[in-house]
């Protein structure tokens, strides 16, 4: 995309290009913690709920869901933050134990084992998440699909040993892919599958769902100003980051990095009572006959997609932001535009380009963002 005009009809808020002559690096996680979080004391980091303190922030971190979760609070603002964080991290453990497909006793594993043969009653909060997943599946035309995990396994991405399957194998796997196969009974809060072999995997939405639940618990305990990261690709910020002079920071500054040059910051968002999710395939994939195949697969056709280098979505919910970032990654740009046009509480930034060895050129296309929502860096206009 070479058009650098700042508007595309009244809806498309902007487009810009960055051209940096640098060595290509492995794509980073696009999101970074607020700058002030980098200032740490000499105390050692504790990866449980004990946490650490910096000159401006209190940090608490914990490994879960194959990533590192981190809670950030303004220094000295909440004396009870440490105690509440212990409860929040226990909730995180409970949710992972419920949603993971990698533990045979989890509720999702039980559902996958039994739901073709009979209706399976589901815990109400998890039932609500499954209903949300189906609503997003419908609204994105099937681009987000919690039953698509078997496609990832077919392509070898789960084993980190990617290879191209046969057309027949893709066709056979697609027979049991589609959230249309997931049937709900609201009176019984139960779920049943209409096709044999259907399996639900909440990897594209579960982390955001956990962050939403953690944020709700913080607010129930009177904590309004906070930031939560889940592996840096999922973020929810409540209230304000307080600046050095004690003034309100009008939200939290959350950085957006270049998808292939980790040292280049493209922009930062002013996130306040909003959640951000990002998707990209730069860190996982394989080459075959000179073509790279990323790990994000379009569940509608069964093949990896390469429309974008990364997609970032901001919405009121971390679960929705995570799911839409995945959906937008496999959708065409016009499809994303149409979605954002009818869902004005959703903002998106799409990064496209064709990075080459020794240089990288990317285009940014964004929807439903104003200058008050974000600031662009490194020559981005």
Question: Any descriptors?
Answer:
alpha+beta; four-stranded antiparallel β-sheet; 381 residues
Describe the structure.
25% of the residues lie in helices and 28% in strands. 45% of the residues are buried. The strands form five sheets. The protein has a ten-stranded antiparallel sheet. Strands 2-11-12-21 form a four-stranded antiparallel sheet, with no helix packed on it. It is an alpha+beta fold. Helix 1 packs antiparallel against helix 6 and helix 6 runs antiparallel to helix 7.
Q: Could you write a compact summary of the structure shown?
A:
This protein has 381 residues and is an alpha+beta fold.
Rounded mean pLDDT score:
81
Find the structural class using helix and strand composition: alpha+beta
General form: globular
- Element order: H for helix, E for strand: EEEEEHHEHHHEEHEEEEEEEEEEHHEEE
Please give the alpha-carbon distance between the first and last residues: 15 Å
Q: Helical segment tally?
A: 8
Number of strands: 21
The low-pLDDT segments are 1-55
Report the C-alpha radius of gyration, rounded: 21 Å
**What amount of the residues lies in strands?**
25-35%
Helix % is 10-25%
Largest sheet: 10 strands, antiparallel
List the helices and strands and how they pair.
Layout: E1 12-20, E2 31-32, E3 52-53, E4 57-64, E5 67-74, H1 81-99, H2 107-114, E6 120-121, H3 124-139, H4 149-154, H5 167-174, E7 182-185, E8 190-193, H6 206-220, E9 226-230, E10 234-238, E11 252-257, E12 265-271, E13 274-280, E14 285-288, E15 291-294, E16 297-298, E17 303-304, E18 310-315, H7 318-330, H8 333-342, E19 347-353, E20 360-367, E21 374-376
Helix pairs in contact: 1-6, 6-7
